[in-house]
Amino acid sequence: MRGRLAKAATRYALLATLALSYLFLYLPILHIGLAAFAKNANFPYPPRWTLDTFGRLFGNSLYQGAFLNSLMLGIGAGALSTLLAAAATLGLIRHAGRRTGLLLTLFVAPLFVAEVLVGIASLIFNGLFLELQGNLVSAILANAVHCFSYALLIMATQLYRYDWRLDDAAMVFGASPLRTFFEVTLPLIWPGLLGAFIVTFIMAFNNLEISFYLLGATPTLPSVAWGALRYGVKPELYALATAVNLVVVLGLGIMFVLMFTGKATFGHRPERERAV
Question: Model pTM?
Answer without folding.
Answer: 0.78
